[in-house]
Every structure is written in structure tokens, then in C-alpha cells.
């Protein structure tokens, strides 16, 4: 049937055309409206950067705060585009060492970052944030978890980060120091996976970063926080750095982005999202 | 020449694995308990998944091949769906059905205390979900290729239906079913996305070889290479052992 075949072909062509337009407009979804609070106080005069596109690889726990930092950065530097990619720090480090094209790397601990430094790929490095651990439980805390020792309760479905990733190393240390022996149901490859298990109701509790449980987070309303007191808790410092590259515009933009992380604006945004400053 | 490119694409990664493997420390690596644990779990789960897929999939394949029923096209589409679904999507869907708050899972939990996520049974379920289509599709083709006049002759001679199936249909379709089972097993062995999403990851219980390789890549790449090589050798051995069956299936056509 030539008529219907032609109509079918036109329909397919239209769909493909619409999809390619949408895809090219998407830009990784980072072109949101500029940060409404904007740079305040005029403490920073944004240096004028040449237009460039930079890629920032950041640990999963930095998802919300880096989204906001990227929008602020783009508002301060029109013409510069930031593409963000989030994963477990160890995964990111491996990607960079294997040759992934990126300009900035921010990890949740030093082990992952050091492996990239050892490969000679880091031009500049800076500690920019501090985070602590917390226990995530279902909304309303139905299991009545009060602290780390409750996590050893038999029958409780507990998920932790795998020890290969920063969150997992820290969780293991915190539990060991507190003398709590747990039998986790799963060791997830990154911290957001732990969080989503609890949010979906598949697990009763999980150990995540305190920053993952703030009110504005993606799982707000479905998870509650049980605080781990300071004497049992652990601080992890986050390093960020500029990765070696040959394009001077991108290197300049990457340097400016890392500058933002330690600037007054950056610290304010980090504090809003629950991070401490070093 | 293009064929040569195809061979290169298929062969070079495998060659790379062999060349980059830590041969000098192979004994030490192979002795590592975590390696054997992951491999043992993978073998157990993939074989269990294949068995389950055979038990429920062969009847399905036969029904699709022989029985005209309303909605047959829909059922066939449903059977093929996991083949085209991204595995992680399959994992999410399994959670929605069989998770603790799932449409069936919540009943299983509250009535029978059965929980599937985070268990080895959950791994088997996830692997069956993604791999069964391979067995069903190939088995259906096998059933279709059985000469119905032979079955009719059997019926005319007074054979009962189950006898007919067991002694006439099944043996004739066996090469296809075997090939389908091998494909199913291979697919189950390699499953990652659905398994990690639905069953999680815990050494000895749900951390199958692909999950272990993924984590090892970031901490001890030599271990990842050794495990990958082991899987490669295992898969290669099975394929070589079954190559006659493989080629035997191609002749009657799908």
C-alpha cells in the first residue's frame, strides 16, 4: 500500500526530526534559569572568561549542590557552559584515568583523587567542603532507629555503600569504631543508590551523607534522618581540582569554577546544602 | 575486508584481556576467595535461571507454536519485550512488582514472609526475566519446525498427548531448545543491570561476577581482568563444546 507506507515514512521522519531538535536543545539539562539569589555583596568580580564548554565530574553526594553551583557559575560567566556528570568517586577517578574528557574533578575523598594525581592528570587541587555521615530511615522512622547500635538489630534490612567507594569506607570505619556489627542486605556501588533503597521502602535504613538528607533533597518527604552524634561520626573532606588539558579557554574556565567553590558565594551555597567548609 | 573489520572488533578486546592479564601472579589471583565466590554464585544463579526458564518457558513456547488463542500476538510481544528492554529498566520493573512495596511483593511479604530483593532467589528471578525470552523464542522456532504430520501420525496410532510430546515433539525440537538454553544461560551469566537494581550486591549472596568486576575495576583492576578472563574461558569452552548443536540448529531454519 504505497499511501499508508508513505504516511508511515513521513510520521517516522517527523518523529526523528522532533527528537533531534529536542536533543540538541537539551544541552544536558543544565540550561536552567540563572540562580535567583545571584552573586551577592559584590565580593567577587567575575573575571571575564572566553566562551567555553567545560565538563565537571563530581561525586554523587554533590549532585544537588553542584547543580546550583553550575547555574551560579553560568550566570556569572555568560558564554561558559557547564556539563555535569555524577557518579561514585572511584568510578569517576577510573574514567579520568582511562581518558574521559573532563575539566574539573570533585571527589568525596582523597583516595579516589590521589589515583588521578598519581596519573599526572591534575593541574591544581583544593579541598573545598566537609561532609559527615547520617542514618537514613523511612519517613516517620517506623522502625524506631535511635542510633548506630540499632542498625545491628536482627531482621532490620540495612543497606550500606560498598567499601570500594568513599561512603562505604567511612561507614565501615564509623561502625567499627562504635563497635557495631551489622549484616547489611546489600552493599551499593554509590551513595544515592543506598538512599533510593530507603526511599523506595526496599530497605529500613542506610548510612548516607548528612547532606543527602536535607529538606530540599530529592527524597525529602520519603526519608527521615537519624543523626550520628559527633563523637561517633567522621568528617570527610572533599577535594576538587582542575584536570590537565590543552584548551586554554577551558582551562581558564575550569580554574574559575574551582575558584567559585572556595569563594564566599560558593561557601554560602555549600552551607545551604549542608556541607561544612574546611 | 569488512568481514575482517568485524573479526578485529570481536577479537581485539578478547586479545587485550589475555595480553593485559597479570600472568605472573595468576596463581595468587585465582586463589583469592572473592574471585571464586563471585564465579561460583554466578554459575549457580545462571544455571538455576536457565532451569526455571526451561520449566516455564518450554510450555510457553509450545503454546505459542501450536495453540491459536486470542491475544497470541500480545503474548509473543510480551515474551520478546525483556530482550529489548534496557536491563536496568527491567530491574526497576521487577522492583515495582516484586519489591517489598511491589504489587505482588507486598503480599508475598505480609502473607508468606517471602522477600525477593537482596536474596539469591531474587538474582535468579532477575536473570530469568531477562534471559527467558532467548529460550522461548528459539524453542518456539524449534516447535514450529517439527513436522506436524509426524504428530498426526502419532495421534492416529493412538498415542496420548503427553506421550506424543515427550517421544515425538520434544526430541525433534531438542536441538533448538538446547541452543535456546545455551543462549539463555549465557545471557543470565552476563546480567548486570537488572540484578544490581533488583537484588542489590552482597558478596556470596547477590554479588554476581559482573557486579564484582565492576567494583574491582576501581580498586584492583588486575582482579577485574582475571575474573573477566575466567568468564571468557568458561563461555568459550561451553560454546566450543556445543558447536555441533549450534550448527545443527541453523539448518532447519527459524
Total beta strands of chain A: 9
- The total of helices of chain B stands at 13
Overall helicity of chain B? over 70%
Tally the helices of chain A.
Answer: 8
Element-by-element helix/strand order of chain A: HEHEHEHEEHEHEEEHH
Largest interface: A-B, 20 and 19 residues
Strand content of chain B: under 5%
Arithmetic mean of pLDDT of chain A: 86
Radius of gyration of chain A: 21 Å
What shape does the CA trace of chain A take? globular
Low-pLDDT residue spans of chain B:
249-254
Query: What share of the residues of chain A lie within helices?
Result: 25-40%
* Structural class by sheet pairing and helices of chain A: alpha/beta
Regions of chain A with pLDDT < 50 over 5+ consecutive residues?
25-44
Radius of gyration of chain B, whole Å: 21 Å
- Give the rounded overall mean pLDDT of chain B: 89
Q: Please report which band the strand proportion of chain A falls in: under 5%, 5-15%, 15-25%, 25-35%, 35-45% or over 45%.
A: 15-25%
Q: Quaternary arrangement of the chains shown?
A: heterodimer
Q: Any overview of this molecule?
A:
- The complex is a heterodimer of chains A (278) and B (254).
- By secondary structure, chain A is an alpha/beta fold.
- Chain A contains eight helices and nine strands.
- In chain A, strands 1, 2, 3, 4, 5, 6, 7, 8 and 9 form a nine-stranded mixed beta sheet that branches.
- The longest helix of chain A has 25 residues, at 2-26.
- Chain A is globular.
- Chain B has 254 residues and is an all-alpha fold.
- Chain B has 13 helices and no strands.
- Chain B has helices spanning 2-20, 26-31, 33-66, 72-84, 87-98, 105-112, 120-144, 148-156, 161-190, 193-199, 209-219, 221-241, 243-250.
- Chain B is globular and about 65 Å long.
- The two termini of chain B are 29 Å apart.
- The chains are: A alpha/beta (278), B mainly alpha (254).
- At the A-B interface, helix 3 and strand 6 of A face helix 11 of B.
Amino acid at each position: 500500500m504505497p499511501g499508508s507506507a508513505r504516511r508511515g515514512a513521513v510520521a517516522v521522519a517527523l518523529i526523528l526530526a522532533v527528537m533531534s531538535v529536542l536533543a540538541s536543545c537539551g544541552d544536558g539539562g543544565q540550561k536552567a534559569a540563572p540562580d535567583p539569589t545571584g552573586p551577592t555583596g559584590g565580593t567577587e568580580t567575575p573575571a571575564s572568561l572566553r566562551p567555553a564548554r567545560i565538563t565537571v565530574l563530581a561525586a554523587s553526594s554533590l549532585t544537588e549542590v553542584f547543580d546550583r553551583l553550575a547555574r551560579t557559575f553560568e550566570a556569572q560567566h555568560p558564554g561558559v557552559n557547564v556539563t555535569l556528570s555524577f557518579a561514585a568517586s572511584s568510578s569517576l577517578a577510573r574514567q579520568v584515568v582511562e581518558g574521559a574528557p573532563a575539566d574539573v574533578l570533585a571527589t568525596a575523598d582523597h583516595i579516589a583523587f590521589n589515583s588521578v594525581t598519581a596519573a599526572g592528570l591534575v593541574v591544581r587541587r583544593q579541598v573545598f567542603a566537609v561532609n559527615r555521615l547520617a542514618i537514613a530511615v523511612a519517613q516517620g522512622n517506623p522502625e524506631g532507629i535511635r542510633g548506630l547500635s540499632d542498625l545491628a538489630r536482627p531482621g532490620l534490612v540495612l543497606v550500606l555503600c560498598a567499601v570500594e567507594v568513599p561512603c562505604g569506607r567511612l561507614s565501615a570505619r564509623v561502625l567499627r569504631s562504635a563497635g557495631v556489627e551489622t549484616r547489611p542486605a546489600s552493599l551499593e556501588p554509590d551513595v544515592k543508590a543506598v538512599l533510593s533503597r530507603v526511599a523506595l521502602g526496599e530497605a529500613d535504613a542506610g548510612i548516607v551523607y548528612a547532606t543527602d538528607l536535607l529538606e530540599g533533597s530529592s527524597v525529602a518527604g520519603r526519608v527521615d534522618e537519624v543523626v550520628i552524634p559527633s563523637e561517633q561520626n567522621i568528617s570527610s573532606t572533599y577535594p576538587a581540582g582542575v584536570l590537565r588539558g590543552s584548551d586554554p579557554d577551558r582551562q581558564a574556565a575550569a580554574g574559575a569554577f574551582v575558584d567559585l567553590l572556595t569563594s564566599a558565594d560558593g561557601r554560602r551555597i555549600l552551607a545551604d546544602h549542608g556541607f561544612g567548609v574546611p | 575486508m569488512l568481514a575482517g573489520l568485524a573479526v578485529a572488533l570481536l577479537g581485539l578486546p578478547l586479545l587485550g584481556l589475555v595480553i593485559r592479564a597479570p600472568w605472573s601472579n595468576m596463581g595468587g589471583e585465582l586463589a583469592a576467595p572473592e574471585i571464586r565466590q563471585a564465579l561460583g554464585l554466578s554459575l549457580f544463579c545462571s544455571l538455576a535461571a536457565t532451569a526455571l526458564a526451561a520449566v516455564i518457558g518450554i510450555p510457553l513456547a509450545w503454546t505459542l507454536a501450536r495453540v491459536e488463542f486470542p491475544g497470541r500476538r500480545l503474548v509473543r510481544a510480551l515474551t520478546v519485550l525483556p530482550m529489548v528492554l534496557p536491563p536496568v529498566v527491567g530491574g526497576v520493573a521487577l522492583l515495582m512488582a516484586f519489591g517489598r512495596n511491589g504489587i505482588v511483593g507486598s503480599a508475598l511479604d505480609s502473607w508468606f514472609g517471602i522477600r525477593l530483593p537482596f536474596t539469591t532467589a531474587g538474582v535468579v528471578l532477575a536473570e530469568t526475566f531477562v534471559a527467558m525470552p532467548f529460550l522461548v523464542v528459539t524453542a518456539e522456532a524449534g516447535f514450529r519446525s517439527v513436522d506436524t504430520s509426524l504428530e498426526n501420525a502419532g495421534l492416529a496410532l493412538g498415542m496420548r498427548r503427553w506421550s506424543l510430546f515427550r517421544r515425538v515433539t520434544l526430541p525433534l525440537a531438542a536441538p533448538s531448545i538446547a541452543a535456546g538454553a545455551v543462549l539463555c544461560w549465557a545471557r543470565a551469566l552476563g546480567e548486570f543491570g537488572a540484578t544490581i537494581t533488583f537484588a542489590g550486591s552482597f558478596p556470596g549472596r547477590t554479588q554476581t561476577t559482573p557486579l564484582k568486576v565492576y567494583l574491582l575495576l576501581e580498586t584492583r583492576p588486575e582482579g577485574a581482568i582475571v575474573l573477566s578472563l575466567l568468564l571468557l574461558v568458561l563461555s568459550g569452552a561451553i560454546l566450543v563444546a556445543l558447536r555441533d548443536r549450534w550448527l545443527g540448529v541453523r539448518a532447519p531454519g527459524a
